[in-house]
Amino acid sequence: MVNVGQCFVITPARPTPTAPMCLSELDQEKTVAPALTVYFYRPSSDSISFAAASQVHRDSLSQVLVHFYPLAGRLHFIADFRDFALPNELRSLVPVVSYDASDLHELPLLMVQLTELSCGGISLGIGVSNIMVDGTCASHFMDEWARMARGDPIGNQPFLDRSVLLTADPTLPPRFKHERFVPNPLLIGQSDDHEEHNKETKIVMLHLSKEQVQKLKDIANKTRPAYIPRPFSQFEAVAGHMWRCATMARGHHPMQPTKLFIPVSIRGRMPLPKWYFGNAIMKQAACSHSGELVKQPLPYACGKMREAVEIVTEDYVKSALDDTKRQPDLTPFRTSHTIGSTTGCFDGNPNMEIISWLGIPFEGLDFGWGKCVYVGPATINVDG
């Protein structure tokens, strides 16, 4: 039976007769910390002032939140909870809020910051609670907000009832092994991950050309095993290459267990409404030993990823929801990468997590003064 002290519900931002909204099991697994994103816009050729742009954002945000009203609410613990902290160093272009578990019900689920740049351009910083949305939902919300800012009506109403994923029956026996509830491998010879977790994280931006990505994809598919009929994607090729390279660079013992965590969308694998507004991402793990990963060619790593993804069927998802419900405490399985967090799982060395935004249409957002010229994460403070 799940420990209610580890669960959340959404309550309205202001006192109303409305009952609290339930969160699905997939929502409950996510970290409280927000996903931080920043959009940049060139100076407007229409001479729109920053004050005018700010007013458009305020007015259209109030309109779009009528439809996406859970983002205007607050999280509440069903009972007491442990301390959980947000990063205390964020870029100046995204909103900053002090996360204190004792004041959880006062913290916003959506944060917005508009900044006028010295060149006359504008940056839009967004923070959305990971418990509330995945990338697909965030993109849907931003698209509808921009649509209203341009004076158009909402295009696609969000489906807000998250109870469609509350099908868990913890009394059923386990039907699959779910790696996300198995403790992560530690480096051979170490009894915990504290040393690796406390190392400084540095950010490096690498540009892969279209030709380089195609070359990796060709290598992956040239000797693709016969039991994998469908060609490897560019994500599988690049991610498999990164997993192998990181393993080599880390100098692992050949018998070192290693996991590669990849997010798998269950949209299309479950009968979810098209515009379902909630987390529909399942964290899957490809597993290997470092020696095999390095010795074998690229298709081996890609094949391990394919195995982890293709097991995610409707029956598997339902089993995973049951498994989530059985956990007495989800805290150890929420990410601990957030600076200041002392609880949760660490997915760094000897493991790795790779997330792709390739299928999410974040780019091109237009609030009425042109499309954004860049969009990307505002902070990166994780290892692995």
In short:
27% of the residues lie in helices and 14% in strands.
Describe it.
This protein has helices at residues 25-29, 50-67, 135-149, 194-197, 210-222, 234-250, 290-295, 298-310, 314-326, and strands at residues 8-11, 34-41, 74-77, 110-116, 122-129, 257-265, 281-289, 352-353, 374-377. It is an alpha+beta fold and 384 residues long. Strands 4-5-2-9 form a four-stranded antiparallel sheet, with no helix packed on it. The protein has a three-stranded mixed sheet with strand order 7-6-8. Strands 1-3 form a two-stranded antiparallel sheet. Helix 2 (50-67) crosses helix 3, helix 5 (210-222) crosses helix 6 (234-250) and helix 6 (234-250) packs across helix 8.
User: How many extended strands?
Assistant: 9
Q: Tell me the distance between the termini.
A: 32 Å
Which class of secondary structure composition applies to the elements? alpha+beta
| Estimated radius of gyration | 22 Å
Oligomer: single chain
The sequence of SSEs as H and E is EHEHEEEHHHHEEHHHEE
**Mean of all residue-level pLDDT scores:** 83
Q: Can you summarize the main beta sheet? A: 4 strands, antiparallel
Q: Helices and strands in order, then pairings?
A:
Layout: E1 8-11, H1 25-29, E2 34-41, H2 50-67, E3 74-77, E4 110-116, E5 122-129, H3 135-149, H4 194-197, H5 210-222, H6 234-250, E6 257-265, E7 281-289, H7 290-295, H8 298-310, H9 314-326, E8 352-353, E9 374-377
Parallel strand pairs: 6-8
Antiparallel strand pairs: 1-3, 2-5, 2-9, 4-5, 6-7
Helix pairs in contact: 2-3, 5-6, 6-8
